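Per your request, structure below.
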């Protein structure tokens, strides 16, 4: 992920469902262009927020087994309401099924009690090591960063005393292999 649209995860059943929120603020740069006199969250970013939420429940359901989870297909996308500054977009995603590399998801976005967006998504999961010779080290770094980001999006894990998972990775010179070790950081951040 190059940017995070979700502000907080409020409920998650790993591998099954997730509910997250995105607060639209006037300080978001793209609103100056979309649209100057009627700023609203672009529909494609609403779809991206749903995709990010779905990716989190997938990652958590398989304990971060795949470093990359990306949108492959979006079908039956329907928009119903604008997301203006000051509004909160509540995103829900439910896993319908998955195979070895893809996951099918039903997702929706609500503003208050009004449906703002619905879609059927197919997300693809993979590791860079499966596609690139030296991808294992990058996979380890990506997983570590995703675990750190998860502790920010869903701070309940830290509040319950479970700490923050950290992954350490080191390349073994001349072998192309990488050694990883996971531990838990319990200090304040």
């Amino acid at each position: 992920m190059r940017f995070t649209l979700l502000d907080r995860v409020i409920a998650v059943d790993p591998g099954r469902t997730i509910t997250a929120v995105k607060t639209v603020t006037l300080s978001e740069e793209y609103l100056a262009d979309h649209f100057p006199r009627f700023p609203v969250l672009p529909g494609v970013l609403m779809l991206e927020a749903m995709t990010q939420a779905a990716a989190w429940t997938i990652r958590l359901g398989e304990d971060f087994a795949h470093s990359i989870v990306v949108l492959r297909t979006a079908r039956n996308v329907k928009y119903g309401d604008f997301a203006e500054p000051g509004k909160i977009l509540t995103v829900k995603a439910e896993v319908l099924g998955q195979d070895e590399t893809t996951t099918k998801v039903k997702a929706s976005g609500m503003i208050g009690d009004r449906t703002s967006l619905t879609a059927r998504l197919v997300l693809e999961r993979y590791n860079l090591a499966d596609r690139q010779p030296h991808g294992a080290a990058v996979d380890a770094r990506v997983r570590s960063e995703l675990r750190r980001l998860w502790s920010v999006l869903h701070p309940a894990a830290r509040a319950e005393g479970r700490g923050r998972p950290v992954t350490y990775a080191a390349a073994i010179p001349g072998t192309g292999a990488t050694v990883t070790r996971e531990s838990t950081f319990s200090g304040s951040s």
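The two ends are 22 Å apart (CA to CA).

Regards,
D.
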